[in-house]
Design goal:
alpha+beta; Jelly Rolls; four-stranded antiparallel beta sheet
Length: about 140
């Protein structure tokens, strides 16, 4: 019985710390990224997580034709070379911010709807860094 109670307390402790970090990242995203999206509109869609140097994240997102998009990556201001890449479904690169002075945003529009792969890379550093990283996207619907 004692063993079960200890396991439950450990689980609750891990869950609480995870939720706390997640809540901190959610609060972090709003003001930091929203300004970078203007004049594009965000409809509450963003992804955030805690990352450390040397980490890599990849996600798939669907983007539709006839819409102008802006992708914005926020966070870890103390790491100037925060990298993100956008690839098509065949892993062909469409954009690498590394080739554009590590800009934190990219504006684009697609001629056809497609699923794109977004990769976020935190480079290795001499002093380990840890913090929230967020990806937001905004859009403008083309008027016909």
């Amino acid at each position: 019985m004692k063993r079960i109670i200890v396991v439950i307390f450990i689980f609750i402790g891990v869950l609480s710390s995870t939720l706390s970090v997640s809540a901190q990242c959610r609060d972090f995203n709003e003001p930091a990224c929203m300004q970078s999206l203007s004049p594009y509109k965000n409809y509450g869609n963003y992804i955030s997580t805690v990352m450390t140097d040397g980490m890599y994240a990849e996600l798939n997102m669907t983007f539709y034709s006839k819409i102008d998009y802006r992708l914005v990556i926020c966070g870890l201001e103390n790491i100037p070379n925060l990298e993100f890449r956008v690839l098509d479904s065949n892993h062909n690169p469409l954009f690498k911010n590394k080739d554009h002075d590590f800009t934190r945003s990219w504006d684009f529009k697609l001629s056809d709807s497609q699923q794109l792969i977004i990769q976020i890379i935190i480079p290795e550093t001499d002093e380990p860094q840890k913090g929230c990283v967020a990806l937001m996207h905004g859009m403008k619907v083309k008027e016909e």
